[in-house]
Amino acid sequence: MTLSDFSGDAAPEVFRQRRELIRSLLNGGVMLLPSAPTLYRSRDTQHRYRPDNELYYSTGVTEPGALALIRGNKDPHFVLFVTGPNESTELWTGPMIGTEIAKDQFGADECYMMSELPDLLPGLIEGADCIHYRARVNDGLELYVKQALEDARSKGARHGSGPRAMVDPGGILDELRLKKEDYEIEWLRMAAQVTIAGHRAGAAIISPGVGEWTVEATVEQAFRSSAGSTVAFPTIVGSGSNGCVLHYTANDKIIDQDDLVLVDAGAEVGFYNGDVTRTYPANGHFTPAQRDVYEIVLASFESAIDKVRPGEPVTALHDAVTRVIVEGLRDLRVLRGSVDGLLEKKAYQPYYPHQTSHWLGLDVHDPGDYASAGTARVLEPGMVFTIEPGLYFRPAIAESLAENLSGIAIRIEDDVLVTEDGCEVLSCGLPTSVAEIEELVGLSR
Ligand code: GLY
Ligand code: MN
Ligand code: MN
């Protein structure tokens, strides 16, 4: 599978329509969206460039060194600044686009060189009643925004106009990004498929004596060669008690005979992300204690999947998971007391310390409020999120428990789309049952 087999890319029309929507929500405001910075891993060595999600979502622009300005009720409504062709930069890092091409490619009304920004920006934001701009992401730009606010304050008494507020663009964009359009869902399906290919490849080489790093490399090799995709986040391969470290990334231990191996990995395809976790027994067979814990996590996972449908509050998923987990912890004699009492006290938290879900999209942890004014968000078709219950018996807190629980860490994570009448598990191509998980381990031995 290669990217050219897949035609889910957003057409310019998608971005034009989206800008119109943003404009209607801006009213008299102006939104400033800069490119993501170019990041360096040491002194002068650049990381591969990853575009800013808000800029891309709003305009399709993936260039570094750009700034998009969208105005609500004034023309020109879409002005783009680019850093433009620069021979010495292009020698090292490749072609850059200039103003003519950028204007045409992204459908800007006007396009200027970034060097013209100091002269043009004050006029472009003058008269806006609100500036939608993320504080502290771009010091240079922030100076102008603050200046505009200062000017408005000093002129306000005489002219009674001008920006009075700087607000986060997420106020508009987060809400729009929450429900995915059809082409976004296609990318997310693709990301889930590539993610599964990586998991299968990684599981197939898991075996006692193999380095966690080799599993990581195998998963990521499959990502790169499946669709030229990249990793959505640093791949987690935690064997033994390393699986208890929620965002473990060292991946530097050799897998032992009776270890569990927790693999949390995701591919990014077309800027959209997969995020899937499976936990494998290193030697292809869960011990009885590992299986007991696995079955609890799996039952909790399935109880959450059963809840996914339009109209259900997002909190119903975590509530379903924690109830099954508390029941399971009682069966294991880790917790004692009534289920409701234990839920009330959140007695599960030492063993299940994170939430069940996060939104998924251009960001792995995609933006969007989970509640407003104390009321949980209600699920709607087009929302995409993970379901990822887990149980972690960190040796430090498992001392008083049965010895065979210490160090066990299990997480099961899938990517889920809310549909008109329920849900589609985008990553369902990777099984979850005990028997099927055991089957996937070490196939390449
Ligand atoms: N892989 C990060 C997470 O599951 O949230
Ligand atoms: Mn996740
Ligand atoms: Mn994950």
Q: How would you describe this structure to a colleague?
A:
The structure is a single chain. This protein folds into two domains: 3-175, 3-Layer(aba) Sandwich (Creatine Amidinohydrolase, Chain A, domain 1), CATH 3.40.350; 179-440, Creatine Amidinohydrolase. 38% of the residues lie in helices and 16% in strands. The protein has helices spanning 12-26, 53-59, 87-93, 99-106, 117-125, 139-159, 170-178, 182-205, 212-227, 288-307, 315-331, 339-344, 395-398, 434-440; strands at residues 30-34, 40-42, 45-46, 67-71, 78-82, 110-113, 131-132, 166-167, 230-231, 236-239, 260-265, 267-269, 272-273, 276-281, 371-372, 375-376, 384-387, 390-392, 409-411, 414-418, 423-425. A six-stranded mixed beta sheet has the order 6-5-4-1-7-8, sandwiched between helices. Helix 5 packs across helix 6, helix 8 (182-205) runs antiparallel to helix 9 (212-227) and helix 10 runs antiparallel to helix 11. Glycine binds at residues 233, 264, 275, 358, 388, 413.
